[in-house]
Design the sequence.
C-alpha cells in the first residue's frame, strides 16, 4: 500500500468547459463582426479595436498587480472580451486617448471596483461607452 | 408484479447496452405484461424520479413518492435479490459489483460476498495499480471516495472505480460568471448557483424556500460549472442544515 488516496466529495468527474473556453468562444463569435468593420471602416477599425483591447488588458494587469496584489488573471479572456465589445461600440475615427479613457472606466471602475470577474452589476464595456 | 398487484412492468435500459436490450427483450417476450424499453443515454436517469419521467412521462411532485404517481421502481440488484429470496430461499449474502478504471488490469463484474474487504475485491481484479489517486465506491458522479481499503463490502455497493492520481485532483475555483449552465443542467429545475451562495452566506431559511431539500445530489451542477465551483459541496451543507433546522422545529 504505497498509494496515497485522495478523498473528496462527489462528483469525481468534471466537464471540459472552462471560463477561458467560454470567453474565447465569444471572441470567435465576434471575429466576423470585426472583419466586416474592417471592410467598411478600414484601418480606423483596427486601430480602435487594438487600442481598446490592449488598454483593457493593461488596466486589468496593473490593477491586479499593484492595487489588489492578487494573482494575475488576464489570461481568462474576460478583459479581452470587454475590450472587443467596447471597441465595437465606438466610431472608427475616435481618438485613441478617448478609447483608453473608456477602457479605464470599463475595467477599473465598472469591473474591478465591484470585485472583478463575475461581480460587476453592469456590463463593463457598456458602462465605459455610457461614460464617454 | 404479484406482490404489488400490478399488470404492467417496464424495464428501462440505455441504448448503449445493445446486448442487454436484445437478450432481455427475447426473455420478456414469453411473459405477459413485461416490456423492455431502450432509453436515450443520459445522466441522471437511473434515479427513480428520472426513470419514471423517461418511461411513462409522469413527474413526481416535490415531496411526493413515486407511488403517488402510480409507479414503483426497483433496480436490477434489488429485483435479483427478491428473486433469489422468494424462489431459492437465499438471503442477501452476496451481490454483483463492477470493478473498473482505466488502470485496472482485470476490470469486470464480480459476484462478491457481502463483508469482503475492498482490498480482497481489488486483488481479485488485478490489484491496485501504482499511481492510483482515488478509489470511488459507486459511480463517478455520486460515489464516495474511499479512504481505507480495509472497509468491507456492504449491500449498497454497486461499483468500485480506481482513478489515477492525475485525475483525482479538483480544478481551481474561479468566480461565478452567471452563465447559468448549472440551471440548465439541474434535472429537477433548481438554481444551483443561488443555493450555493445562500449556503455559503448562511441564509438557510431562504435556501429552504428555494427547495434546497429537493436536491438529489446528482452532481450535474458541479460537473458542468466552467468556473470549477464546488456547487454541490455547498448545497449539501445547506441541505443538511435545513433538514436539521426542520427537525429541531418539530422537537420544540
Sequence:
Amino acid at each position: 500500500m504505497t498509494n496515497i488516496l485522495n478523498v473528496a466529495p462527489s462528483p469525481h468527474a468534471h466537464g471540459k468547459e472552462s471560463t477561458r473556453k467560454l470567453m474565447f468562444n465569444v471572441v470567435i463569435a465576434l471575429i466576423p463582426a470585426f472583419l466586416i468593420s474592417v471592410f467598411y471602416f478600414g484601418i480606423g477599425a483596427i486601430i480602435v479595436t487594438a487600442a481598446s483591447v490592449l488598454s483593457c488588458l493593461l488596466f486589468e494587469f496593473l490593477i491586479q498587480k499593484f492595487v489588489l496584489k492578487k494573482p494575475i488573471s488576464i489570461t481568462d479572456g474576460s478583459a479581452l472580451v470587454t475590450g472587443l465589445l467596447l471597441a465595437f461600440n465606438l466610431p472608427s475615427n475616435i481618438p485613441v486617448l478617448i478609447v483608453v479613457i473608456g477602457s479605464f472606466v470599463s475595467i477599473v471602475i465598472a469591473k474591478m471596483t465591484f470585485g472583478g470577474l463575475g461581480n460587476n452589476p453592469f456590463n463593463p464595456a457598456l458602462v465605459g461607452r455610457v461614460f464617454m | 408484479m404479484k406482490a404489488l398487484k400490478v399488470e404492467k412492468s417496464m424495464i428501462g435500459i440505455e441504448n448503449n447496452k445493445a446486448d442487454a436490450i436484445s437478450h432481455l427483450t427475447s426473455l420478456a417476450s414469453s411473459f405477459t405484461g413485461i416490456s423492455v424499453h431502450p432509453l436515450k443515454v443520459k445522466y441522471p436517469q437511473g434515479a427513480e424520479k428520472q426513470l419514471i419521467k423517461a418511461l411513462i412521462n409522469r413527474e413526481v411532485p416535490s415531496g411526493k413518492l413515486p407511488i403517488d404517481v402510480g409507479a414503483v421502481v426497483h433496480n436490477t440488484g434489488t429485483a435479483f435479490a427478491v428473486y433469489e429470496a422468494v424462489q431459492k430461499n437465499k438471503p442477501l449474502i452476496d451481490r454483483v459489483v463492477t470493478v473498473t478504471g482505466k488502470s485496472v488490469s482485470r476490470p469486470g463484474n464480480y459476484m462478491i460476498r457481502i463483508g469482503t474487504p475492498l482490498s480482497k475485491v481489488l486483488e481479485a481484479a488485478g490489484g491496485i495499480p501504482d499511481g492510483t489517486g482515488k478509489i470511488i465506491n459507486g459511480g463517478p458522479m455520486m460515489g464516495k471516495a474511499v479512504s481505507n481499503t480495509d472497509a468491507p463490502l456492504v449491500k449498497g455497493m454497486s461499483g468500485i472505480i480506481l482513478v489515477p492520481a492525475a485525475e483525482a485532483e479538483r480544478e481551481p475555483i474561479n468566480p461565478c460568471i452567471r452563465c447559468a449552465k448549472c440551471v440548465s443542467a439541474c434535472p429537477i429545475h433548481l438554481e444551483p448557483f443561488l443555493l450555493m451562495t445562500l449556503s455559503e452566506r448562511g441564509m438557510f431559511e431562504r435556501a429552504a424556500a428555494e427547495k434546497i431539500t429537493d436536491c438529489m445530489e446528482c452532481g450535474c451542477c458541479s460537473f458542468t460549472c466552467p468556473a470549477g465551483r464546488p456547487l454541490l459541496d455547498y448545497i449539501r451543507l445547506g441541505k443538511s442544515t435545513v433538514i436539521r433546522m426542520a427537525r429541531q422545529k418539530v422537537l420544540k
